[in-house]
Amino acid sequence: MNDIRFIPAVLTIYFEAMSDDKNELFRREYSSLSEYEEDSIGQWLKIAKARGETKDTDEVLLNLLTELHRKVDELTSLVKNEDKQLLKLAHSDQILEIGFDHIKIESASFEETKEYYARIEMPVFPKREMAVYLKGITPNIAQIILIHEKDQRDWNAYVVAKERILIRELKRSMSND
Hints:
By secondary structure, the chain is α+β, with helices and mostly antiparallel strands. The chain contains 4 helices and 6 strands; from the N terminus they run E-H-H-H-E-E-E-E-E-H. The chain folds into 2 domains: 7-35 and 87-176, predicted glycosyltransferase like domains (Thrombin, subunit H); 39-83. The model has no long low-confidence stretch (mean pLDDT 86).
């Protein structure tokens, strides 16, 4: 346990223990929250990138336009009352600390070796809920055991960004002493 390096972060997590009657529901939601599963623009972009049709395109601009299209789709769904509903999970909590493969929550809600399905609200662009599977290590600590590839890159980038902020704060406090 001492070899896990945690960085302070405040995120919201929703989670529920795996159970035979809900495993299929969890699996479907997990799949639907993957990077390209949920929308046609994502599918189109993935195919265009695979064909090399986007090689001369500014990647940042392409991502911004794609997200703008998704927002328009989201607003259209809202107006048509077609809002996508996520599963209501049994627990919600605050994540206090994060690592590349671990999270530490405020309350003692995990059971050792028990597996959980979870969604984490991520403050990245685009802002979204990331689906993950966790395994309890202690009552407050869980290990990430399954995460989508794109979400893994975003999670790692978020951990690194938080770590950099922590390092800057430590340097600033040391220079003030």
